[in-house]
Design brief:
single chain, 339 residues, mainly beta, 6-stranded antiparallel beta sheet, 12% helix, globular
Length: 339
Amino acid sequence: MEDKEKKLYPFRFLEDKEQRPWGEVCYKIADLGLVDSRVKDGWLADNKLSELMGTFMERVVGDDSFEYYGLQFPIMIKSFETSGWQPLQVNVPDAEAEARYDSFGKTALWYVLDAKPGSEIHIGLGRDISSDEFYRRCLDSSVSEVLNVIHPKAGDAILIEPGTLFAAGPGLTIVEISECSEMTFDIHDFSPSSDHDTSALEEAFDLITYNAAPIPAQNKINPQVNNVPGITLLAQRDEFKVTRMDLRDPLHIFSDQPGPFALYYCLKGEAIVRRSSEELDFQDVTVKEGEVVLIPSEVNDYYIFPMKEGTILLETTVERRIDPDSYTGDKDPHLRNWN
């Protein structure tokens, strides 16, 4: 780690790939201990994400995020390809994760990059069910009979709440944006050769939502952000805000003061992040399809230029939502703007 006084710059990271029985996982950015993303280039090349946080703290994520998450980087982005069925899983809520495991919980957004014909995702229950019946169905491998089934298409965005049962089938490529946590229990293996180990099921038993869940609207159209064409909101939660950017023209992103960090995942095409003034000490940073770039908090005024027709980015931020002051009408200077 070098001079703490030098200006930070947009960071790209080396990927970490892992093989699973059901496919391949590629961590794009994560601060998980065993998986700790390394900076790809620049004067901080080869430093781990945890080391950036330990040295530069709020300069990376912003005051609000640092106040809540401390030295833990708050967001994880990974992609995965499925060649078989994932186990049936459930994510742990924040409160239970903190109380039981001294960890953050997990809320996730799945964005479908590709879906082969006939591919499926299980998400939630199709009807109310007792915990006893659910346990029995896990043992006799009939649990899929009571799960919702959706047939995803490329471009679908699916929010996965803690407590909701879920699993992706073969033939899918998905990017997952979530809290930086893997507090997920694999509670049932769909493989015929499974020995039906019930230890994870029993540990997660009281975390599962046993009520019927409506099938999620995979293609819900959300309003434009700041009335900017091509920028639509996919999810807005306390945990994260995810926006899809169909870049037709250069985009100027700024705040009056250093605000939240931003992550850009390139879904399609190619884009350049360019400084807006000579005060920002970095060269143009290119993000290509499948890559992620982290814009640290102190880089609060920059442009994004699409370099190919049809360039699409997913922007992820963690923002404190503040209404304009009722007396002065002033807005929080940390909030970001697009134009």
